[in-house]
Amino acid sequence: SDEKKQERSEKTPLNSQKARPLLKDEQQNRYLSSNSSEKTLRGIFALSPKGKDIDVILSSETLLVGDCSHSIADIVGASEFSKGVLVHSYPRRTPGCCTEGGSRHYKRIRLYTPDKKVSKHWSVQISRVARGQTIGNPELKQRNILFYVNPLSGPGKSMQQFESVRSIFENAGIKPIVVKTQKPGQVRAEIAKCNLERWDGIVIVSGDGLIVEYVNGIMDRPDWEKALLRPFGCLPGGSGNGLASAVRHESGDTYDLTASAFLIAKGNTREVDMVSWRQPGVKPLYGTLSLSWGLISDIDLNSEACRCCGSGRFVAYATYRSCCPRSYYAKLRYVPTSLHHGEVPSRSSGIQKLKSSHQPGVITSEPDPEVGEKDSFYYEGLNSERKTLNVPYFKPPQNESLWNEVKANVFTFLWAMGPAKPDEDHIAAPDAKIGDGRIHLVYLEGNSCWSSICTLLRLEEGTQLKDPKCKILEVEALELIPDFQRQPKGLYSVDGERVEHNDKPIMMEVYPRALTVFCGGPS
C-alpha cells in the first residue's frame, strides 16, 4: 500500500538513497538547504565523482561528512578543485606498531559537487570556521605573513625545513613572504623601522637568537606598545629552539616541525611573558626565555664549535663538564612573586612595568624597508641600518625592601626562565606556564660531580627537586652578582645567546603577558 511505501522511505537513511536527477532550478537548493544558519551550514555532496549523496554539516566545532566527524581544531582551511571542495586537515596519529601517537599528518577530505558557486561558498566558509570566524560572511581575507629564515642557524637546514612545511601555510590561505638573513642584527634593524601593518604576523625560522633580535626590534620602535600586539611565531631551525618547544608544550602538540607550522597556520594566539636583562652602563636586552649561568651556560655557549651536530652538542659537552665540575661564587638576590597560586596576571600590569622603565631607541627617518615587494620569492634582505641615540643605565626596578638574598654563595648552576621548557630536552620548571607572570628561578647549590650528573638527567623529566640542593623559586625579578675575584667567573647566557659583559652584575625582570605568539591551547 501507499502508506507502507512511505514508511519504508522514511526509514531509509539519506546516504543510502540513490541520487535522483536534478532540475536546474533545484541545483542551488540541493547544496545550500534552508537549514543553513549563522552557526550551521548544511549541504549535500558526494565522496567520489559518481558516488551517492551524503549529508554534510559544518558547525563551529565539527565538519560532519555523513557519519564521519572531523574536528575543526585539526582543519587549517579549504580550497576549490575542478570537481568540488578540498578540505585540508592535520589530525593527530593514533599510536600503532610503527607510528608514534600524537604527531600530526596531512589528510585530504574531498567533497564532490558540479556547482562551482557552491564549491567557492563552502571553501570560504570552512576556511572561516578553521580560523575561528563565524559562518555566513562571504569574504575571506588572505593572510600575509613575513618569514625570516636564518640559513646558518643550528645545523644550517632552516631553508630546507621551511620548504618542507610551506604547503601547510598555503593550505591555510597564507601568502608567505620570505627573507633570508645575511648578517647579525638585520632582523632587529628592519623590525624597528618597517610598517608592521602590512603583515598579519611575523615568523622566525631559526633558533632563539633571532627571536631575541625580533623582540628587541619591536622595543626599539616608538610605537612599541602597539607593535607588541602583532603576533609572531617560530619554526625550530636552531639547536635549542626554546620558545618553539615551550609553545608546543603548552599546546599539547608533539615536538616536531609539522606541529609548529600547524599552530602558526591555525592563527590562534596567546599572550606570553617578556623578560629583560639589565647591566650597569649597558642598554637593556629583551627576550622571552631565560638567563643561565654556571654549568648550564658553559654547556650552552662552549659547545658552539659543534653547532653542526644540532642538539647533540649539548649532550656531549654536558657529559664532559659534569665529570669535571666547577664551583661558581656569587650573591643572588630576588623579589618573590606577589601573585597567589594559580593567579593569572593581566597584560596591563606588564605594559605598565615597561612604561616605567623602557626608553625606546630614536630611529633615523629613513624610508620604510620594502620587505616582501620584490618579484622573486626569495631575496637576500634589505641592507638597512638602525641607529639609536639613547644611553641606558642600570636601575633596580623594585623597592629595596622587597629583595631577599639566597644564603648560599657557591653554586653549580643558575637557570632562571619563564616557560617550563627552555629547550627541547628539559623540563626545568614543571609548573611554569608561558603567560603566568613569573620567573622560575632554578639553582643547584654546592659543587658535586654526582649531584651535577643526577640533576642534569632529572631535568629531562622535571624531577630535579629530588636533590635537596636543587631549589626552585617563583620571583618577579632577580639580581646575580658574581664574585669576580674568584675563578671561574662564569658566562651569562640569555635565551641561549652569549652576553658580551660577563664582568658585570646582571638583573632579570618579567613583564606579564606583554607579547603575542601563535599558540594553541587555552588563552
Which helices and strands occur, and which strands form pairs?
Layout lengths: L1 H10 L15 H5 L8 E7 L6 E7 L2 E4 L2 E4 L3 E7 L2 E6 L17 E6 L3 H15 L12 E7 L8 H14 L2 E7 L5 H8 L7 E6 L1 H12 L4 H4 L4 E5 L5 H10 L5 H10 L2 E11 L2 E6 L2 E5 H8 L9 H12 L4 E9 L10 H11 L20 E2 L24 E2 L4 E8 L21 E7 L3 H10 L11 E13 L9 E3 L2 E2 L7 E13 L5
Parallel strand pairs: 8-9, 8-10, 9-16, 10-11
Antiparallel strand pairs: 1-2, 2-3, 3-4, 5-6, 6-7, 12-13, 12-23, 14-18, 14-21, 15-17, 15-18, 15-20, 18-19, 19-20, 20-23, 21-22
Helix pairs in contact: 4-9, 5-6, 10-11, 11-13
Task: Give a short summary of the structure.
The protein has 523 residues and is of the alpha+beta class. The chain has helices at residues 2-11, 27-31, 116-130, 158-171, 186-193, 208-219, 224-227, 242-251, 257-266, 295-302, 312-323, 347-357, 449-458; strands at 40-46, 53-59, 62-65, 68-71, 75-81, 84-89, 107-112, 143-149, 174-180, 201-206, 232-236, 269-279, 282-287, 290-294, 328-336, 378-379, 404-405, 410-417, 439-445, 470-482, 492-494, 497-498, 506-518.
